[in-house]
Design goal:
The protein has 182 residues and is an alpha/beta fold. The chain is built from 6 helices and 5 strands; from the N terminus they run βαβαβαβαβαα.
């Protein structure tokens, strides 16, 4: 029997942690990729990823790259495409599943079903059909992902979602506001 492999783009937030948990629950051998692209939240995300990797008993490959200086919080144009291609190029993820924990209900193109459909085709072509991109929550809203997360039993304190990188979180950025609704 061939092992079912899945690699999750793991940021340490509720969505990516839920994605990794879901795939483990479905019987996949799960590993993760974390990308340091100079984000303001890097330090706190790394702390969360370390906790989550131990909690879920998964291996994490870390990629360090540089990006233009980011002054504003919120949308970083091309971010999810960059993360996907970083996993393929730098982490050499070339087979199995590559999963990203995006959900519906955001105004960002790279969190849309159309984006995932187009990227699925590109990823499959690049990897000769050996790698499939999936977004298990692309049709779920944030409250559904959060409900699933609560059912995992993973303490929310292990996760981190603040665009400013503040500790404690700033409670003002879009991620903090999104998280405070639950």
């Amino acid at each position: 029997m061939t092992e079912k492999k899945a690699t999750v783009l793991l940021s340490g937030g509720i969505d990516s942690v839920s994605c990794a948990h879901l795939l483990k629950k479905k019987g996949f051998s799960v590993s993760a990729v974390f990308v340091d692209y100079g984000q303001a939240s890097l330090h706190q995300e790394c702390i969360a990823v370390e906790k989550i990797k131990d909690e879920l008993e998964i291996e994490v490959k870390y990629i360090v790259t540089t990006a233009p200086k980011m002054d504003d919080h919120g949308e970083i144009i091309g971010r999810n495409a960059f993360l996907i291609f970083s996993a393929i190029f730098s982490a050499e993820v070339h087979s199995g599943l590559l999963a990203i924990g995006i959900h519906s209900g955001t105004p960002y193109y790279d969190c849309s079903k159309n984006f995932i459909t187009q990227m699925e085709n590109i990823v499959s072509e690049y990897c000769n059909g050996r790698l499939s991109l999936i977004a298990p929550f692309v049709d779920w809203d944030k409250s559904s992902v959060y409900q699933y997360f609560r059912e995992t039993g993973i303490p929310i304190e292990m996760t981190y979602s603040c665009e400013s990188g503040a500790f404690p979180p700033c409670k003002q950025c879009a991620s903090c506001i999104d998280r405070s609704m639950f």
